[in-house]
């Protein structure tokens, strides 16, 4: 069998090997290897164990927080246990304020007494003990609004913006049918979302600049606190990602000076209705925080399964997922799931004795949630970068890669030797398809790779874009960056950046499937004669 023979040959010493000895046509799947991976990955999966340890022991992993430091240590220890080579932290530069919430509560004290679910907006300043004030309903969407409210908000608890209606209709847990996947409807839904993101980019810079003026206005008014609606997802899921305030509050220059607190959506809507009806509701609230280094460094956690083929081992196949999360839940679907499946994929490869010809490198990125910082830093150091506009409106865009290109690609030392970057960041759902991001030759090759995976539900390769995540960093500089179409499960309704993103959002069987499929893509990419075709 191929695996046994490969081990024996490697045992004799890789230098003596002619690489052609185990060469195979890239487009012809090695079915014995597929079967070995499926046996190990589906019957003896450790994916849920990886996830449970990260989600329950370490918990939420807000960038720069003490928990994120624990997560780096957790990842290094896991990589060591899995037998990966040279687990290490690679700096991505100073990130910002080391911060965590130690206490956040809110309750209504008039006209009724009610206890509400609440969370501090990430990097919010603390209150000085408990504070209270009249809650006022305020729409601040234009500079005219700022003029209209001038002098009226001192000492108030500002309800910032009308409540969002919860998407109450439709099922909370979604799986794509085989037909939706093979007819392309599932991917089309992703593409439609992607188009809204592209459209939003056009106004996001202007919005960012306005939010900065609005935050400065609220601070100058002397508001007691700002309260933000957490109700963008299913009822009971509080979404807490700081996007309503905008800017980069982890940097001292952009951190609002007023306390900001998220309220559960139903509570927020009740307060808003009462304020609009003239009932003058009063809120009491408190935020306590623990703050450390204002320039806390950020890291990617990196380790390898080294390639054995002397001619190919300097070429890299990247398996990536982001380690950081928001802090309202425990970052389970976003993205302990991707971390667990990625670590599990390399565990499977080691367990079946697969010896990659190219080097498989695992990178667990930091700072994804604030704008793909980890993958940007990885690419800039090793692969290359494109200078970006520093115009104020462009600087207000949340992701560096979205800023206008202002120069040609400057290649880094590993650009030529790079093969392909995989990224798993779509929650806990099983893999249903692959996005190749504008790379027809690669799409063609992957269609051959997934043909034996139909029974696992992997049915489609789409050569269109996915939503912007860490794989975009690679496609932006002309390299193959791959993401996956996954069953959404309750990612959008309950998990995404929300308080309900806990271990309960994860499916053990789905994670096992995703890890097995990823393992197959990794070893196929590592062993093909040719490096992954470039767009
Ligand atoms: Zn994510």
SSE layout and pairing:
Elements: H1 2-11, H2 31-43, H3 47-58, H4 66-81, E1 85-96, E2 99-110, E3 114-116, E4 118-120, E5 131-138, H5 143-149, E6 157-160, H6 178-182, H7 185-221, E7 225-229, E8 260-263, H8 265-276, E9 282-291, E10 296-305, E11 316-322, H9 332-351, E12 359-365, H10 373-382, E13 384-385, H11 392-395, E14 410-411, E15 418-423, E16 431-435, H12 440-450, E17 460-462, H13 470-475, E18 481-486, H14 491-495, H15 508-527
Helix pairs in contact: 2-15, 3-9, 9-15
This protein binds zinc ion.
What can you see in these coordinates?
35% of the residues lie in helices and 20% in strands. The chain has 535 residues and is α/β, with parallel strands linked by helices. The chain folds into 2 domains: 24-96 and 295-368 and 423-527, 3-Layer(aba) Sandwich (Aminopeptidase); 99-291, 3-Layer(bba) Sandwich (Glucose Oxidase, domain 1). The strands form 3 sheets. The protein has an 8-stranded mixed β-sheet. Strands 3-2-9-5-6-7-8-4 form an 8-stranded mixed β-sheet, covered by helices on one side. The radius of gyration is 24 Å and the shape is elongated. The structure holds zinc ion. Residues 322, 334-335, 368, 425 line the site of zinc ion.
Mean pLDDT: 92
**In angstroms, what separates the terminal alpha carbons?**
35 Å
Question: What would you call the shape?
Answer: elongated
- Regions with pLDDT < 50 over 5+ consecutive residues? 1-21
The assigned CATH architecture of the largest domain is: 3-Layer(aba) Sandwich
Provide the CATH superfamily of the largest domain.
Zn peptidases
Q: Remind me, CATH topology of the largest domain?
A: Aminopeptidase
Report the major sheet: 8 strands, mixed
| Proportion of beta-strand residues | 15-25%
Gyration radius, rounded = 24 Å
CATH class wording of the largest domain: Alpha Beta
User: How many runs of DSSP E, i.e. beta strands?
Assistant: 18
Secondary structure class reads: alpha/beta
Instruction: Please give the order of strands in the largest beta sheet.
Output: 1-10-12-11-15-18-16-17
Residue share in helices?
25-40%
Total number of helical segments? 15
The total domain count is 2
- Which molecules are bound in this entry? zinc ion
């Amino acid at each position: 069998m191929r695996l046994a023979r490969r081990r024996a040959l490697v045992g004799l010493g890789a230098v003596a090997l002619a690489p052609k000895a185990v060469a195979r046509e890239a487009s012809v799947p090695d079915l014995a290897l597929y079967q070995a991976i499926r046996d190990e990955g589906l019957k003896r999966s450790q994916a849920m164990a990886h996830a449970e340890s990260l989600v329950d022991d370490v918990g939420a992993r807000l960038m720069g927080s003490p928990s994120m430091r624990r997560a780096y240590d957790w990842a290094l220890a896991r990589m060591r246990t899995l037998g990966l080579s040279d687990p290490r932290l690679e700096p991505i530069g100073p990130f910002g304020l080391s911060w965590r919430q130690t206490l956040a509560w809110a309750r209504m004290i008039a006209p009724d007494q009610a206890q509400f679910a609440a969370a501090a907006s990430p990097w919010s300043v603390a209150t000085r003990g408990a504070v209270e004030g009249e809650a006022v309903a305020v729409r601040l969407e234009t500079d005219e609004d700022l003029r209209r409210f001038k002098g009226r908000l001192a000492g108030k608890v500002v309800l910032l913006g009308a409540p969002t209606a919860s998407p109450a209709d439709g099922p909370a847990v979604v799986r794509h049918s085989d037909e939706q996947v093979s007819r392309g409807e599932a991917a089309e839904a992703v593409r439609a979302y992607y188009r809204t993101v592209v459209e939003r980019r056009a106004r996001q810079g202007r919005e960012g600049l306005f939010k900065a003026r609005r935050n400065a206005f609220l601070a100058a008014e002397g508001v007691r606190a700002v309260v933000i609606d957490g109700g963008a997802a299913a009822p009971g899921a509080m979404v807490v990602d700081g996007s309503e305030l905008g800017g980069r509050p982890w940097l001292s220059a952009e951190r609002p000076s007023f306390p900001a607190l998220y309220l559960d959506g139903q509570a927020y809507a009740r307060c808003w209705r009462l304020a609009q009806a003239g009932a003058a509701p009063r809120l009491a609230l408190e935020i306590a925080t623990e703050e450390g280094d204002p320039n806390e460094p950020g890291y990617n956690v990196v380790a390898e399964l080294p390639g054995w083929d002397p001619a190919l081992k300097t070429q890299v196949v990247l398996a990536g997922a982001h380690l950081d999360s928001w802090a309202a839940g425990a970052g389970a679907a976003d993205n302990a799931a991707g971390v667990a499946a990625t670590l599990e994929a390399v565990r499977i490869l080691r367990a079946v004795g697969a010896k990659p010809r190219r080097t498989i490198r695992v990178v667990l990125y930091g700072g994804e949630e604030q704008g793909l910082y980890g993958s940007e830093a990885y690419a800039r150091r090793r692969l290359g970068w494109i200078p970006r506009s520093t115009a104020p409106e462009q600087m207000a865009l949340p992701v560096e890669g979205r800023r206008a290109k202002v120069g040609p690609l400057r290649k880094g030392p590993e650009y030529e030797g790079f093969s392909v970057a995989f990224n798993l960041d779509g929650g806990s759902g099983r893999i249903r398809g692959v996005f190749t991001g504008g790379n027809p030759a690669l799409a063609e090759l992957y269609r051959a790779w997934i043909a034996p995976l139909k029974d696992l539900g992997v049915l489609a390769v789409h050569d269109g874009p996915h939503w912007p995540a860490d794989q975009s960093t690679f496609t932006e500089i002309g390299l193959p960056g791959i993401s996956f179409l996954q069953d959404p499960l309750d990612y959008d309704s309950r998990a995404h950046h929300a308080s309900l993103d806990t271990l309960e959002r994860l499916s053990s069987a789905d994670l096992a499937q995703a890890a097995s499929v990823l393992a197959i893509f990794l070893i196929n990419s590592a062993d093909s004669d040719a490096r992954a075709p470039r767009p």
